[in-house]
Amino acid sequence: MTVTTLIFETKVKRTIFSEYQIEALLKALVAKAGLTYPEIVGAYANRNAKIANVHLDVHQDSTQATYMCGSNPHFVASVVDSKGKIMVYPT
Protein backbone atom coordinates (compact mmCIF):
# COMPACT_ATOMS: atom_id res chain seq x y z
CA MET A 1 0.00 0.00 0.00
CA THR A 2 1.35 3.42 -0.98
CA VAL A 3 0.91 6.21 1.54
CA THR A 4 1.30 9.81 0.42
CA THR A 5 1.75 12.85 2.59
CA LEU A 6 0.72 16.30 1.44
CA ILE A 7 3.81 18.53 1.57
CA PHE A 8 2.43 21.70 0.04
CA GLU A 9 -0.71 22.91 -1.71
CA THR A 10 -1.69 26.24 -3.16
CA LYS A 11 -4.12 27.61 -5.71
CA VAL A 12 -3.22 30.41 -8.10
CA LYS A 13 -4.78 31.92 -11.19
CA ARG A 14 -3.76 30.11 -14.36
CA THR A 15 -2.83 33.35 -16.08
CA ILE A 16 0.16 34.05 -13.84
CA PHE A 17 2.20 31.05 -15.06
CA SER A 18 3.33 29.99 -18.50
CA GLU A 19 3.88 26.29 -19.22
CA TYR A 20 7.63 26.87 -18.89
CA GLN A 21 7.14 28.54 -15.49
CA ILE A 22 4.98 25.67 -14.23
CA GLU A 23 7.70 23.18 -15.19
CA ALA A 24 10.43 25.30 -13.57
CA LEU A 25 8.35 25.68 -10.41
CA LEU A 26 7.79 21.92 -10.12
CA LYS A 27 11.53 21.30 -10.53
CA ALA A 28 12.32 23.83 -7.79
CA LEU A 29 9.79 22.29 -5.40
CA VAL A 30 11.12 18.75 -5.96
CA ALA A 31 14.72 19.89 -5.54
CA LYS A 32 13.99 21.78 -2.32
CA ALA A 33 11.82 19.07 -0.80
CA GLY A 34 13.95 16.03 -1.37
CA LEU A 35 17.09 16.14 -3.49
CA THR A 36 20.71 16.38 -2.45
CA TYR A 37 23.03 18.84 -4.14
CA PRO A 38 24.67 16.08 -6.23
CA GLU A 39 21.23 14.86 -7.34
CA ILE A 40 20.29 18.37 -8.45
CA VAL A 41 23.53 18.72 -10.40
CA GLY A 42 22.92 15.33 -12.06
CA ALA A 43 19.40 16.34 -13.03
CA TYR A 44 20.81 19.23 -15.08
CA ALA A 45 23.72 17.26 -16.58
CA ASN A 46 23.72 16.10 -20.21
CA ARG A 47 21.75 12.85 -20.54
CA ASN A 48 24.79 10.81 -21.58
CA ALA A 49 26.90 12.02 -18.63
CA LYS A 50 27.78 9.50 -15.94
CA ILE A 51 26.20 11.67 -13.22
CA ALA A 52 22.94 12.27 -15.13
CA ASN A 53 19.58 11.36 -13.58
CA VAL A 54 15.89 12.00 -14.27
CA HIS A 55 14.87 13.35 -10.84
CA LEU A 56 13.71 16.68 -12.29
CA ASP A 57 12.09 15.48 -15.51
CA VAL A 58 8.61 16.96 -15.90
CA HIS A 59 5.91 14.81 -17.46
CA GLN A 60 2.60 16.03 -18.81
CA ASP A 61 -0.55 13.92 -18.75
CA SER A 62 -1.69 13.36 -22.33
CA THR A 63 -5.40 13.74 -21.55
CA GLN A 64 -5.53 16.21 -18.66
CA ALA A 65 -3.95 19.59 -17.95
CA THR A 66 -1.61 18.06 -15.36
CA TYR A 67 2.18 18.25 -14.93
CA MET A 68 4.19 15.93 -12.67
CA CYS A 69 7.78 16.01 -11.44
CA GLY A 70 9.79 13.85 -9.05
CA SER A 71 9.36 10.40 -7.59
CA ASN A 72 9.80 10.64 -3.82
CA PRO A 73 8.81 13.34 -3.15
CA HIS A 74 6.77 14.28 -6.19
CA PHE A 75 4.78 17.38 -7.05
CA VAL A 76 1.79 17.83 -9.34
CA ALA A 77 0.32 20.95 -10.95
CA SER A 78 -3.12 20.80 -12.55
CA VAL A 79 -5.33 23.32 -14.29
CA VAL A 80 -8.79 23.08 -12.74
CA ASP A 81 -12.15 24.65 -13.50
CA SER A 82 -14.15 26.84 -11.10
CA LYS A 83 -15.45 23.72 -9.32
CA GLY A 84 -11.95 22.28 -8.79
CA LYS A 85 -12.27 19.60 -11.49
CA ILE A 86 -9.11 18.96 -13.53
CA MET A 87 -9.47 20.25 -17.08
CA VAL A 88 -9.52 17.57 -19.80
CA TYR A 89 -8.05 18.15 -23.24
CA PRO A 90 -10.51 17.74 -26.14
CA THR A 91 -10.07 14.50 -28.07
- Poorly predicted regions are none
Number of helices: 2
Total strand segments = 3
User: How many domains would you count in the coordinates?
Assistant: 1
Mean pLDDT: 91
Helix content: 25-40%
Output the radius of gyration: 15 Å
Structural class: alpha+beta
Shape: globular
The proportion of residues in beta strands is 5-15%
Distance between the termini: 33 Å
Let me know the largest β-sheet. 3 strands, antiparallel
Order of helices and strands, N to C?
A: HHEEE
Provide the spatial order of strands within the biggest beta sheet. 1-2-3
Description:
There is one protein chain. With 91 residues, this protein is of the alpha+beta class. The chain has one domain. It is built from two helices and three strands, in the order ααβββ. The chain has helices spanning 19-34, 37-44, and strands spanning 58-60, 66-70, 74-78. The chain has a three-stranded antiparallel beta sheet with strand order 1-2-3, covered by helices on one side. A hairpin with a 5-residue loop joins β1 (58-60) and β2. The longest helix has 16 residues, at 19-34. The protein is globular and about 45 Å long. The mean pLDDT is 91.
Give me the secondary-structure topology.
Layout: H1 19-34, H2 37-44, E1 58-60, E2 66-70, E3 74-78
Brief summary:
The protein is α+β, with helices and mostly antiparallel strands and 91 residues long. It has helices spanning 19-34, 37-44, and strands at residues 58-60, 66-70, 74-78. The protein has two helices and three strands.
Keywords, separated by commas or semicolons:
91 residues; 2 helices; 3 strands
